[in-house]
Amino acid sequence: MLVSFPPFPRQAIACACVLSCVSLAQAQPAPAPAPETASSRNAGIVTVMAGRQGSLPTQIPTTIEGITGAEIDATINATDSADALKYFPSLLVRKRYIGDYDHAVLSTRASGTGNSARSLVYADGILLSNLLGNGASFTPRWGLVTPEEIERVDVLYGPFSAAYPGNSVGAVVDYVTRMPTRFEAHAKVAGYSQRYDVYRTDGRFGGGQAAASLGSRAGDFAWWLNLSRQDSESHPLVYATRNPSTAAPAAGAVAVTGAVAEKNRFNQDWLLIGTSSQARTVQDHAKLKLAWRLLPTLRASYTLGFWDNSVERQPESFLQDASGQRVDIRPDNFPTSVGGTRAVSIDGRGYTLSAADFGRTRERLQHVMHGLSLRQATGGVFDWQLAASLYDYARDEVRAWAPVAATAATAANAAGGRITDQAGTGWNTLAAKGTWRPGGADDKSVGRHVIESGLQRDAHQLRNKVSTTADWLAGAPAAGNPASRFEGHTALTSLWAQDAWAFAADWKAVLGLRLEQWQAARGLTTNGGGAFAHPTRRESAASPKLAVGWQPRDDWSLKLSSGRALRFPTVSELFQGGVNASTGALSNGDPNLKPEVSWTTELSSEWAWRPGASLRATLFHEATRDALYSQTNTTVTPNVTNVQNVERIRTQGLELAASTRDLGVRGLDLSGSLTFADSIITANSRFPASVGKWQPRVPRWRANAVATWRATEALSGTLGVRYGGQQFNSLDNSDPIGARYQGASKFLVADLRLRWQATRQWSAALGIDNLNNELYWNFHPYPLRTIVAELKFDL
């Protein structure tokens, strides 16, 4: 594998220096990242102990990084479960504000934030990833796990375990939440605020959280109840724009000022005339967990989760008339003239405002999660597990203001709107897994085997109906056919097995095979009077996996892993589109999309020169065929824009990660990571201009560094630094200016956290995210400097 490196960006020198210091340090012993009761390592292969709850197989043939709940509490300003991943190597969660529930997508080494279906997130074995689609709006259900209940988080990099479907090609995130061993009571209140001074907006946006937990264990029965509320305001996320006009103002046009002139991401002139999608979200979370020890080695558990979210999104115009009054379009000033628009004059040129420039929405979401498992964990010759989960959109309604303009024959309806209803959407999973240790758990002989196998079924159902209404706030859907509707089902049935074989002294191999049958059925696409029913599709695939680890010394190991992964199309990729009402033909959709096929290989070397001090270097290579992207087919007339297969993308790179404790100064802990990724589109016949260009939103350089000083047993401080290099939002890299609305910019931000354990029960923390107040973008703007304060009580 040949990797050429461009000049290293100066902005990340600090992170590189941390890695250098860590690798040269003579650190004192420190606990390993994972407790010995959770996992152990032999020949580079991690073995998970039998009693651990979660989605992980017992033998992990891939790079794994982890963090405990105690470490999260000490070092991270965690307002949700996604924040636990803030400093993991090569990972980024696109969290636009505290409370972001619909765009906080996870990106990995070779996948950007537009590829949500190329990673998996689990909590206690329950699937939280939203695999109904692939994109920014298909966010994992982070809100179903609160930071206070996390026991630990582990991340597996790459598709090297046969236990997971091809969506694991980027990473698998596995949350394990805690269950009490005695009576416990916990409470937390937190508040946060940022000043957002961008363009014509200058104000404070923030919110607060409150959470309470109770739990106990009595004999063989344990329970845990968690309740929380989050009330957050985002900064403006969307901007109304105009290309420069050459037209003269229309008769009666209002002369206005306030428009912001700048270059867009394509280095072209445009105007920003206002904001929309400034959100206020109130999220309530409730979770009940029950566990019974039916026999000394047999445990049953049940999880019930409920998430309720009420959202309001508001606009704000930048435009003012000569008297200083805002010029916009609202329900109370909607034009009654034909067309429903308002003419304005900006710098002597004519422009037209419409209601779409100042969008307003109201959302009400109520989602319910169930998880049930039965697990035998003897640690002996044979163990097994049965698990089932269900995630249901009990209510999912978005009401958008969409007034109806007057025509020559009808009057305007300023209260008109559009209702998007996704009730009935959701997913369910079933899994059976067994672990066979022919020589028993204590067998350390050369030639020993640990064989795991399982049968899984993951099914997804999407219901999306858009209707018009006479009253956008409270009206019923209009009678007759909906304006648009698409729905469908996908199901993946899998049989897998893997064998961890200690074939020689200091050597271990993990050989795996995953057999999959995928089905897409009951697909329906409609708009207005046209409807298109999609035929059932079925495909089968086999994905082999191989890992070989060698550990010649106790402090050094080398591991080579390789695996094939198929990421099948999601329901929305297949069935979202339109129908030509006159011909009945499908438009702007492709129900025959091919699955993505990736071959991923990594070579890792890990040196643990002292307990708790380690340095890892990983070379990785991924070759993807038929990657799924929304793009414009420029080879046909007229051009067609929809989700299409991109023939080939190649990614290769290097990841370094290091950590140590008590570096030079007693109580000083350091960790850091540095990633180089060269991700190139090598073939794309439908959009030839993209060939040879960088894959969108995959920067070449990423780095994180964290320094924690434990000044006393009660007081600690943490400084974290995060860096992301240059990247692009478009497949043809035609958007070189990333630091703009709709762009993807490089960034260097620092975070600070101070934590004080005042008494055994009371603790307080004060933090600042984006300490240096950097304005950076990933289509939408990220938060500016944000102050976070919290107070906790633990009994």
Give me some keywords for this one.
single chain; 795 residues; mainly beta; 26-stranded antiparallel β-sheet; 5-stranded mixed β-sheet; 3 helices; 43 strands; globular
Describe the secondary structure blueprint for this structure:
Blueprint lengths: L12 H12 L14 E4 L2 E4 L10 E2 L2 E6 H7 L16 E2 L12 E2 L12 E4 L2 E2 L22 E8 L13 E7 L6 E15 L2 E18 L2 E13 L4 E5 L11 E3 L3 E4 L5 E27 L2 E20 L24 E5 L2 E5 L7 E16 L5 E20 L15 E5 L4 E11 L12 E21 L14 E21 L2 E21 L2 E4 L3 E17 L2 E12 L3 H5 L2 E2 L6 E2 L8 E15 L2 E21 L6 E21 L7 E16 L17 E10 L4 E10 L22 E11 L4 E8 L7 E2 L1 E2 L4 E9 L1
Parallel strand pairs: 7-10, 15-19
Antiparallel strand pairs: 1-2, 2-3, 4-9, 5-6, 7-8, 9-10, 11-12, 11-43, 12-13, 13-17, 14-17, 16-17, 17-18, 18-21, 19-20, 21-22, 22-23, 22-24, 23-25, 24-25, 25-26, 26-27, 27-28, 27-29, 29-30, 30-33, 31-32, 33-34, 34-35, 35-36, 36-37, 37-38, 38-39, 39-40, 40-43, 41-42
Structure description:
This protein is mainly beta and 795 residues long. It has a 26-stranded antiparallel sheet that branches. A 5-stranded mixed sheet has the order 4-9-10-7-8. Strand 35 (640-660) and strand 36 (668-683) form a beta hairpin. The radius of gyration is 27 Å and the shape is globular. It starts with 12 loop residues before the first helix and ends with a strand.
The shape, in one word, is: globular
Work out the number of β strands. Answer: 43
Largest sheet: 26 strands, antiparallel
Class inferred from helices and paired strands: mainly beta
Rg to the nearest angstrom? 27 Å
Helix content: under 10%
List segments where confidence is low: pLDDT < 50 over at least 5 consecutive residues: 1-37
Q: Measure the end-to-end span.
A: 54 Å
User: How many helical stretches?
Assistant: 3
Beta-strand content: over 45%
What do the pLDDT scores average to? Answer: 90
